[in-house]
Amino acid sequence: MSRSTRFFTLPRLLWRLLIGLWTLSGEVQLGLVAAGVAFYSVFAIFPAIAALIAIFGLVADPEVIKAQLELMREIIPVEAYGLLTEQLNLMVSTRPETLGFATVMSTFVALFSARNGVASLILGLNQIYGRPNRNGVWQLLVAMLLTFSLIAIAVLAMLVVVVAPILLAVLPLGSGTGWALEAVRWIAAFGIVLAGLGVLYRFGPNMRGARGRWITPGAFLVILFWLLASAGFSYYLSNFGNYNEVYGSIGAVVALLMWLFISAWLVLLGAAINVVWARIVRSGTGISQGAIHPGPRPREIG
Question: What CA–CA distances, in Å, run from 223 to 22, 89, 217, 235?
Fold first, then answer.
Protein backbone atom coordinates (compact mmCIF):
# COMPACT_ATOMS: atom_id res chain seq x y z
CA MET A 1 0.00 0.00 0.00
CA SER A 2 1.46 3.39 -1.01
CA ARG A 3 1.96 6.26 1.40
CA SER A 4 -0.80 8.30 -0.27
CA THR A 5 -3.22 5.38 -0.02
CA ARG A 6 -2.52 5.03 3.69
CA PHE A 7 -3.08 8.77 4.16
CA PHE A 8 -6.52 8.60 2.60
CA THR A 9 -7.42 5.29 4.22
CA LEU A 10 -6.97 6.46 7.83
CA PRO A 11 -9.56 9.26 7.59
CA ARG A 12 -11.96 6.83 5.92
CA LEU A 13 -11.41 4.30 8.72
CA LEU A 14 -12.10 6.95 11.34
CA TRP A 15 -15.19 8.04 9.43
CA ARG A 16 -16.47 4.45 9.28
CA LEU A 17 -15.78 4.10 13.00
CA LEU A 18 -17.78 7.25 13.79
CA ILE A 19 -20.65 6.17 11.54
CA GLY A 20 -20.64 2.72 13.13
CA LEU A 21 -20.71 4.21 16.64
CA TRP A 22 -23.54 6.57 15.69
CA THR A 23 -25.58 3.71 14.23
CA LEU A 24 -24.95 1.30 17.10
CA SER A 25 -25.67 3.99 19.71
CA GLY A 26 -29.03 4.64 18.10
CA GLU A 27 -29.83 0.94 17.83
CA VAL A 28 -29.23 0.23 21.52
CA GLN A 29 -30.42 3.67 22.76
CA LEU A 30 -27.11 4.31 24.48
CA GLY A 31 -28.20 7.47 26.29
CA LEU A 32 -31.29 5.80 27.75
CA VAL A 33 -29.29 2.78 28.92
CA ALA A 34 -26.66 5.07 30.47
CA ALA A 35 -29.39 6.95 32.33
CA GLY A 36 -30.60 3.69 33.86
CA VAL A 37 -27.05 2.74 34.84
CA ALA A 38 -26.54 6.17 36.45
CA PHE A 39 -29.79 5.85 38.43
CA TYR A 40 -28.80 2.48 39.89
CA SER A 41 -25.24 3.71 40.46
CA VAL A 42 -26.47 6.46 42.78
CA PHE A 43 -27.78 3.77 45.13
CA ALA A 44 -24.74 1.54 44.58
CA ILE A 45 -21.81 3.94 44.92
CA PHE A 46 -21.99 4.46 48.68
CA PRO A 47 -22.40 0.75 49.54
CA ALA A 48 -19.45 0.11 47.22
CA ILE A 49 -17.34 2.67 49.10
CA ALA A 50 -18.44 1.12 52.40
CA ALA A 51 -17.39 -2.33 51.21
CA LEU A 52 -14.06 -0.96 49.95
CA ILE A 53 -13.37 0.70 53.32
CA ALA A 54 -14.36 -2.44 55.25
CA ILE A 55 -12.13 -4.74 53.19
CA PHE A 56 -9.17 -2.39 52.77
CA GLY A 57 -9.35 -1.35 56.43
CA LEU A 58 -8.50 -4.90 57.48
CA VAL A 59 -5.00 -4.64 56.01
CA ALA A 60 -4.17 -0.92 55.89
CA ASP A 61 -5.28 2.56 56.92
CA PRO A 62 -8.43 3.55 54.95
CA GLU A 63 -7.17 7.15 54.99
CA VAL A 64 -5.32 6.09 51.81
CA ILE A 65 -8.70 5.93 50.07
CA LYS A 66 -9.35 9.55 51.01
CA ALA A 67 -5.94 10.52 49.64
CA GLN A 68 -6.70 8.78 46.33
CA LEU A 69 -10.05 10.55 46.06
CA GLU A 70 -8.19 13.82 46.57
CA LEU A 71 -6.62 13.29 43.13
CA MET A 72 -10.08 13.71 41.60
CA ARG A 73 -10.81 17.06 43.30
CA GLU A 74 -10.17 19.09 40.14
CA ILE A 75 -12.05 16.62 37.92
CA ILE A 76 -15.18 15.64 39.84
CA PRO A 77 -17.83 18.40 40.12
CA VAL A 78 -17.53 20.30 43.40
CA GLU A 79 -21.01 19.33 44.62
CA ALA A 80 -20.48 15.64 43.84
CA TYR A 81 -16.98 15.68 45.33
CA GLY A 82 -18.28 17.25 48.53
CA LEU A 83 -21.01 14.63 48.85
CA LEU A 84 -18.56 11.77 48.26
CA THR A 85 -15.97 13.08 50.73
CA GLU A 86 -18.61 13.74 53.37
CA GLN A 87 -19.88 10.18 53.22
CA LEU A 88 -16.35 8.79 52.96
CA ASN A 89 -15.25 10.64 56.12
CA LEU A 90 -18.32 9.36 57.95
CA MET A 91 -17.68 5.77 56.88
CA VAL A 92 -13.99 5.91 57.80
CA SER A 93 -14.70 7.35 61.24
CA THR A 94 -17.38 4.79 62.08
CA ARG A 95 -15.81 1.65 60.60
CA PRO A 96 -15.20 -1.31 62.95
CA GLU A 97 -11.57 -1.92 63.94
CA THR A 98 -11.76 -5.71 64.05
CA LEU A 99 -13.13 -8.47 61.87
CA GLY A 100 -16.25 -9.91 63.47
CA PHE A 101 -19.50 -11.49 62.39
CA ALA A 102 -21.25 -8.11 62.25
CA THR A 103 -18.46 -6.70 60.08
CA VAL A 104 -18.63 -9.65 57.69
CA MET A 105 -22.40 -9.38 57.39
CA SER A 106 -22.36 -5.60 56.89
CA THR A 107 -19.67 -5.97 54.22
CA PHE A 108 -21.72 -8.64 52.44
CA VAL A 109 -24.82 -6.42 52.58
CA ALA A 110 -22.78 -3.53 51.15
CA LEU A 111 -21.51 -5.75 48.32
CA PHE A 112 -25.03 -7.00 47.62
CA SER A 113 -26.31 -3.41 47.43
CA ALA A 114 -23.39 -2.25 45.29
CA ARG A 115 -24.00 -5.00 42.76
CA ASN A 116 -27.02 -3.06 41.39
CA GLY A 117 -24.74 -0.64 39.59
CA VAL A 118 -22.67 -3.44 38.05
CA ALA A 119 -25.80 -5.42 37.14
CA SER A 120 -27.21 -2.45 35.22
CA LEU A 121 -23.88 -2.09 33.39
CA ILE A 122 -24.00 -5.78 32.45
CA LEU A 123 -27.46 -5.32 30.92
CA GLY A 124 -26.18 -2.36 28.94
CA LEU A 125 -23.15 -4.32 27.71
CA ASN A 126 -25.43 -7.16 26.59
CA GLN A 127 -27.41 -4.61 24.59
CA ILE A 128 -24.29 -3.33 22.87
CA TYR A 129 -22.89 -6.79 22.14
CA GLY A 130 -26.30 -8.02 20.99
CA ARG A 131 -26.37 -10.81 23.56
CA PRO A 132 -29.37 -12.12 25.53
CA ASN A 133 -29.39 -11.46 29.25
CA ARG A 134 -28.51 -14.26 31.68
CA ASN A 135 -31.19 -15.89 33.80
CA GLY A 136 -31.97 -14.31 37.17
CA VAL A 137 -29.79 -16.40 39.49
CA TRP A 138 -26.80 -16.49 37.13
CA GLN A 139 -27.13 -12.77 36.48
CA LEU A 140 -27.10 -12.08 40.23
CA LEU A 141 -24.06 -14.31 40.75
CA VAL A 142 -22.09 -12.71 37.90
CA ALA A 143 -22.94 -9.22 39.15
CA MET A 144 -21.80 -10.12 42.67
CA LEU A 145 -18.55 -11.67 41.41
CA LEU A 146 -17.78 -8.69 39.20
CA THR A 147 -18.56 -6.27 42.04
CA PHE A 148 -16.21 -8.12 44.37
CA SER A 149 -13.57 -8.28 41.62
CA LEU A 150 -13.73 -4.53 41.02
CA ILE A 151 -13.40 -3.81 44.74
CA ALA A 152 -10.52 -6.30 44.99
CA ILE A 153 -8.76 -4.49 42.13
CA ALA A 154 -9.20 -1.20 43.98
CA VAL A 155 -7.83 -2.74 47.20
CA LEU A 156 -4.74 -4.07 45.41
CA ALA A 157 -4.10 -0.70 43.79
CA MET A 158 -4.47 1.03 47.17
CA LEU A 159 -1.96 -1.41 48.67
CA VAL A 160 0.51 -0.36 45.98
CA VAL A 161 0.09 3.22 47.21
CA VAL A 162 0.76 2.05 50.79
CA VAL A 163 3.85 0.00 49.91
CA ALA A 164 5.31 2.53 47.46
CA PRO A 165 6.74 4.94 50.10
CA ILE A 166 8.55 2.03 51.79
CA LEU A 167 10.14 0.91 48.53
CA LEU A 168 10.96 4.44 47.38
CA ALA A 169 12.63 5.21 50.72
CA VAL A 170 15.51 2.85 49.88
CA LEU A 171 16.09 4.47 46.48
CA PRO A 172 18.43 7.47 46.15
CA LEU A 173 15.77 9.77 44.70
CA GLY A 174 16.45 12.75 46.95
CA SER A 175 14.07 15.61 46.19
CA GLY A 176 12.39 13.48 43.53
CA THR A 177 10.74 11.23 46.12
CA GLY A 178 7.66 13.45 46.39
CA TRP A 179 7.26 13.51 42.62
CA ALA A 180 7.66 9.73 42.50
CA LEU A 181 4.99 9.22 45.16
CA GLU A 182 2.58 11.46 43.26
CA ALA A 183 3.30 9.49 40.08
CA VAL A 184 2.58 6.23 41.90
CA ARG A 185 -0.79 7.56 43.06
CA TRP A 186 -1.78 8.52 39.52
CA ILE A 187 -0.53 5.23 38.10
CA ALA A 188 -2.55 3.37 40.74
CA ALA A 189 -5.66 5.38 39.85
CA PHE A 190 -5.10 4.69 36.15
CA GLY A 191 -4.54 1.00 36.90
CA ILE A 192 -7.80 0.77 38.86
CA VAL A 193 -9.83 2.20 35.98
CA LEU A 194 -8.05 0.24 33.22
CA ALA A 195 -8.25 -3.07 35.09
CA GLY A 196 -11.88 -2.43 36.05
CA LEU A 197 -12.83 -1.73 32.44
CA GLY A 198 -10.93 -4.83 31.34
CA VAL A 199 -12.92 -6.99 33.76
CA LEU A 200 -16.24 -5.41 32.75
CA TYR A 201 -15.66 -5.68 29.00
CA ARG A 202 -14.33 -9.25 29.23
CA PHE A 203 -16.76 -10.85 31.67
CA GLY A 204 -19.75 -8.51 31.72
CA PRO A 205 -21.39 -9.42 28.38
CA ASN A 206 -23.07 -12.82 28.13
CA MET A 207 -20.56 -14.10 25.57
CA ARG A 208 -20.19 -17.65 24.35
CA GLY A 209 -16.76 -19.14 23.65
CA ALA A 210 -13.79 -16.81 23.20
CA ARG A 211 -13.93 -13.52 25.08
CA GLY A 212 -12.43 -10.15 24.31
CA ARG A 213 -8.98 -8.91 25.23
CA TRP A 214 -8.10 -7.63 28.70
CA ILE A 215 -6.84 -4.33 27.29
CA THR A 216 -8.90 -2.78 24.49
CA PRO A 217 -8.88 0.44 22.46
CA GLY A 218 -12.22 1.35 23.98
CA ALA A 219 -10.82 1.22 27.51
CA PHE A 220 -7.98 3.64 26.75
CA LEU A 221 -10.31 6.03 24.92
CA VAL A 222 -12.83 5.88 27.77
CA ILE A 223 -10.18 6.97 30.28
CA LEU A 224 -9.11 9.87 28.05
CA PHE A 225 -12.68 10.97 27.29
CA TRP A 226 -13.71 10.58 30.93
CA LEU A 227 -10.92 12.85 32.17
CA LEU A 228 -11.84 15.49 29.59
CA ALA A 229 -15.60 15.19 30.15
CA SER A 230 -15.34 15.23 33.95
CA ALA A 231 -13.02 18.25 33.90
CA GLY A 232 -15.32 20.01 31.43
CA PHE A 233 -18.44 19.28 33.48
CA SER A 234 -16.70 20.45 36.66
CA TYR A 235 -15.62 23.67 34.91
CA TYR A 236 -19.16 24.24 33.65
CA LEU A 237 -20.69 23.88 37.10
CA SER A 238 -18.04 26.13 38.64
CA ASN A 239 -18.47 28.95 36.10
CA PHE A 240 -21.86 28.72 34.41
CA GLY A 241 -24.22 26.51 36.38
CA ASN A 242 -25.01 26.05 40.04
CA TYR A 243 -27.18 23.03 40.79
CA ASN A 244 -27.67 24.15 44.39
CA GLU A 245 -29.43 27.32 43.21
CA VAL A 246 -31.72 25.40 40.87
CA TYR A 247 -32.38 22.22 42.88
CA GLY A 248 -31.79 23.47 46.42
CA SER A 249 -30.76 20.90 49.00
CA ILE A 250 -30.63 18.07 46.46
CA GLY A 251 -28.26 19.94 44.15
CA ALA A 252 -25.29 17.77 45.17
CA VAL A 253 -27.26 14.59 44.45
CA VAL A 254 -28.31 15.90 41.03
CA ALA A 255 -24.71 16.85 40.20
CA LEU A 256 -23.56 13.38 41.27
CA LEU A 257 -26.29 11.76 39.16
CA MET A 258 -25.30 13.81 36.11
CA TRP A 259 -21.62 12.96 36.58
CA LEU A 260 -22.49 9.26 36.92
CA PHE A 261 -24.56 9.50 33.73
CA ILE A 262 -21.58 10.94 31.84
CA SER A 263 -19.33 8.22 33.27
CA ALA A 264 -21.80 5.42 32.44
CA TRP A 265 -22.33 6.75 28.91
CA LEU A 266 -18.58 6.76 28.30
CA VAL A 267 -18.10 3.24 29.71
CA LEU A 268 -20.82 1.96 27.37
CA LEU A 269 -19.33 3.99 24.52
CA GLY A 270 -16.02 2.21 25.13
CA ALA A 271 -17.78 -1.13 24.68
CA ALA A 272 -19.39 0.16 21.48
CA ILE A 273 -15.96 1.24 20.20
CA ASN A 274 -14.66 -2.29 20.81
CA VAL A 275 -17.62 -3.82 18.96
CA VAL A 276 -17.41 -1.53 15.94
CA TRP A 277 -13.62 -1.74 15.76
CA ALA A 278 -13.78 -5.55 15.87
CA ARG A 279 -16.13 -5.48 12.88
CA ILE A 280 -13.76 -3.21 11.00
CA VAL A 281 -10.80 -5.49 11.75
CA ARG A 282 -12.74 -8.58 10.67
CA SER A 283 -13.61 -6.89 7.40
CA GLY A 284 -9.91 -6.87 6.46
CA THR A 285 -9.62 -3.30 5.22
CA GLY A 286 -12.34 -1.54 7.14
CA ILE A 287 -13.42 0.28 3.98
CA SER A 288 -16.58 -1.62 3.11
CA GLN A 289 -19.92 -0.44 4.46
CA GLY A 290 -20.63 -3.94 5.74
CA ALA A 291 -17.79 -3.63 8.21
CA ILE A 292 -19.79 -1.37 10.48
CA HIS A 293 -23.32 -2.65 9.89
CA PRO A 294 -24.95 -2.91 13.34
CA GLY A 295 -26.51 -6.27 12.67
CA PRO A 296 -29.77 -7.41 14.27
CA ARG A 297 -31.19 -5.24 17.03
CA PRO A 298 -30.34 -6.66 20.49
CA ARG A 299 -33.04 -7.71 22.87
CA GLU A 300 -34.41 -4.78 24.88
CA ILE A 301 -33.58 -4.48 28.56
CA GLY A 302 -36.43 -5.38 30.80
Answer: 20, 27, 10, 18
